[in-house]
């Protein structure tokens, strides 16, 4: 799964019932995900990483297959970890470079450890 990156659109709000916007203190297992095509997880501050745990829970424990989008204070430093924890899209903060974020995603071709997207470690993949 490749992480899609876009610019933050601060006035953009969910326009239909298929988008679920979660604060980073909400337990995703308490939400009804039926009919939800995109879950937006909030990063109120760069240093607040609770949305990473929410993304892992959505992908691994709840089996959510739709779009998981990072919104809020999203920096290019975070995109690699976002792709590994289950995010499929991110809205970068307005002062962040789209080109540098894409380059960050290409920095490593593979990882030794498993993650939310590829659960098997590198040594056990054929």
**Sequence stretches where pLDDT stays below 50 over 5 or more residues:** none
Outline type:
globular
Task: Count helical runs.
Answer: 3
- Report the order of strands and helices: EEEHEHEH
Q: What class do helices, strands and sheet pairing give?
A: alpha/beta
Taking all residues together, what is the mean pLDDT?
85
Kindly estimate the percentage of residues that lie in beta strands according to DSSP.
15-25%
Task: Assign a percent range to the helix content.
Answer: 10-25%
Q: Quick one: biggest sheet?
A: 5 strands, parallel
Number of strands: 5
Radius of gyration: 14 Å
Distance between the termini: 19 Å
Strand order of the largest sheet: 1-5-4-3-2
Provide structural commentary:
This protein starts with a strand and ends in a 20-residue tail after the last helix. The protein has 126 residues and is of the alpha/beta class. The protein has helices at 50-61, 79-85, 98-106, and strands at 4-7, 19-22, 38-43, 67-72, 89-92.
Key terms for this structure?
22% helix, alpha/beta, five-stranded parallel β-sheet, 126 residues
Spell out the blueprint of helices and strands.
Elements: E1 4-7, E2 19-22, E3 38-43, H1 50-61, E4 67-72, H2 79-85, E5 89-92, H3 98-106
Parallel strand pairs: 1-5, 2-3, 3-4, 4-5
In short:
With 126 residues, the protein is of the alpha/beta class. The chain is built from three helices and five strands; from the N terminus they run βββαβαβα.
